Amino acid sequence: MISLSDCPKFQSCNAPVCPLDPVWARRFNHKEDSTCFYLSESVKRGSQALFEGAGLEELGEVIHRISPAIATRHSRIQRALERAKQTGSRMARLVKRCQEADHE
């Protein structure tokens, strides 16, 4: 089972609702709060392949499974995820850079 501390952004994240938090449903999301980076990435086209390319398959699986429930419970997060679908993936750029560095 994956835990909060398994997230690569655990030390720097300030999103109050974390898909890895077993009690995420008890958390509040206010107007000024951030949305989990990986939750936002999970709604983008090809996201499962991106999580795999980054070596984060388990994280991706958990987030893909729980994200509909989070979006249903937190309307602000749902709107943020709708906006995220319309933008390019930051994770894709990171994965691409890492792959290019491996080939140099």
Question: Can you tag this structure with a few keywords?
Answer:
mainly alpha; 104 residues
Write the layout of secondary structure elements.
Elements: H1 37-42, H2 47-53, H3 57-73, H4 75-85, H5 90-102
Helix pairs in contact: 2-3, 3-4
Please, could you describe this protein's structure?
With 104 residues, the protein is an all-alpha fold. The chain has one domain. It is 52% helix and 0% strand. The protein contains five helices and no strands. α3 (57-73) crosses α4 (75-85). The longest helix is centred in the middle third of the chain and has 17 residues, at 57-73. The model has no long low-confidence stretch (mean pLDDT 91).
Quickly describe the structure.
The protein has 104 residues and is an all-alpha fold. 52% of the residues lie in helices and 0% in strands. The chain contains 5 helices and no strands.
Fraction of residues in helix: 40-55%
Outline the biggest β-sheet.
Answer: none
Q: What is the count of distinct domains?
A: 1
- How many beta-strand runs? 0
Q: Unreliable runs, pLDDT <50, ≥5 residues?
A: none
N-to-C order of helices and strands: HHHHH
